[in-house]
Amino acid sequence: MEKLLTRVSKPARYLGTEWNAIHKAWEENPVRMAFVYPDLYEVGMSHLGLAILYGVVNERPGMLMERAFAPGPDLEGLLRENHLPLFSLESHRPLTEFDVLGFTLQYEMSYTTILNILDLAGIPLMASERSAGHPLVIGGGPGVANPEPVAPFFDAFLLGDGEEALPELLAMVGSLKKEGAINDRRRVLKAIASMPGFYVPSLYEVEYNNDGTVAAVVPREEGVPERVVKRVIPDLDAAYFPTQPIVPFLEVIHDRMMLEVMRGCTHGCRFCQAGAIYRPVRERDLSILLRQAEELVRHTGHEEISLTSLSTADYSRVEELARVLAAAYADRGVSISLPSLRVDAFSVRLAEAVQRVRKSTLTFAPEAGSQRLRDVINKGVNEEDILTATGEAFRAGWQAIKLYFMLGLPTEREEDLLGIVDLARRILDQGRKLAPGGKPTVTVSVSSFVPKPWTAFQWEPQDRVEAIKEKQKLLRTHLKGPGLRFNWHEAEVSFIEAVLSRGDRRLSRAIVAAWRRGARLEGWSEYFNYSCWEEAFRETGLDPAFYAYRSRREEEIFPWDHLDFGIAKDFLKRERRRAWEGLVTADCRSGRCTGCGVCPGLGVDLILKGGPRDSAT
Ligand code: SF4
Predict the structure, then answer these.
(1) For 384-436, what is the HEC assignment?
(2) pTM for the complete prediction?
(3) Which of 338, 368, 545, 598 would be 549's cystine partner, CB 3.0–4.6 Å?
């Protein structure tokens, strides 16, 4: 193996000897799992979930977790040429030697890479073709909001938080091994299906209507739950957090310490799946965060602490936290960053407080170009908020502003698109006035709307690829001139994403067919090849338009309806109606529950830590 690594471009991706990597003795730890990130090392090592689960499993006696990533094309070529299997980083053992392989489903475009990894490991792609000696292949992460397109490849999925559920699974695997029952695959799968939060897709039958929609998803046998409810860590303060994470040798996407200040988001943007499936909001206590930050700094040597969450500026005591951290670590050359800002002046002042030295680009996400459309998506900001925030940013010395928008949102009209142009120009003019002498730039970055399960827009069609391209062209024509920049996402990628995100089990055939044609690492634009998918759909006779472009009946049964993330379908229907009426729904953080169903359904509550945030605005 070492010889092979001298022939690849970035061998440090595969060494496994980084600072803080854990090498537990194989023989002394009879339950062994590999966490497999279906993308390159640089992406996977920036993922907080990996760091959490790696730590939580390895701190337990009797079990170990190692890491594996998708190999770069050069190593893949060498492995195939030399008939060598894909291996874990820590012990360089073939993945087949582990009891459990856990994939995180972060993004639909990683599905072909999952197949590639299974193939490189020498594991049958189909769960039904695996036998006693093969590892259990399990999946987790946001893709499990609708895992049906990849269901035939997995033995089980975990819904929700993994800190408690994963060690429980491994403990169960350990006792089945001890009993000598681990080779009875049926028994193992039934045991997993009986654990809260675990979904074993092969134990469910999908029935279809004549029009191709799902008629029902039902358990195949007694004792298998009709609905699988997600796992939630009710109180993050009591949960494990990795304060001694692995420090990579090479530059990764996010080269910094991650301090998770809270989980969940209560804004209720109607397109946002993460905001729905990670509810309720659970904040960490300030004193705990300060202690964790101290340990992170001591154990890593990184020069930046990133305050991570879906919407960090919402954390009740964010200002205090940011200021204390900035003051405590300035001398040691450690800066603080806030990866997600809201479109408000408070966020800008906060960013200013922590980013004293480097004022690079400040990013905001108005998402839509008109107030009407921002109300439809429940974005909860108005033009004044946006202009005040950008004005503050220019005054504070930022020269570059980036604005995120989505094309193809439900009810979108041409004036909404022109609203994007207008807003960008007004912000640029403002920059010229408020940042005299400087050269302000405004970058407009647009993605295409992808309707996602568990959102108020899960019934909506996606815009056709041609329509998206026309809209991109319109924006490109108007967003020209000094100081203006425009970039966009490839429409075909968003189309495949839309097909897979609301798809059913039949799509697994297309994923296999696309992979056979060479599809892999498709999150990277240089590797995405649309023709692989076009041919895959032709070969399998599946119509991608059925999944992406169809407006779904309100009563339609969805492929994910037997899964339970706590959000009530009735709430989503209500939100959908309110969207079409242009009515906004308040954030439940302010005190009034808007009835999404999560808290009563899962027996949990919002955990807010109070503090001076409101008085500071
Ligand atoms: S149940 Fe109510 S309080 Fe809880 S997350 Fe939903 S809207 Fe907010």
Answers:
(1) HHHHHHHHHHHHCCCCEEEEEEEECCCCCCHHHHHHHHHHHHHHHHHHHHHCC
(2) 0.95
(3) 545
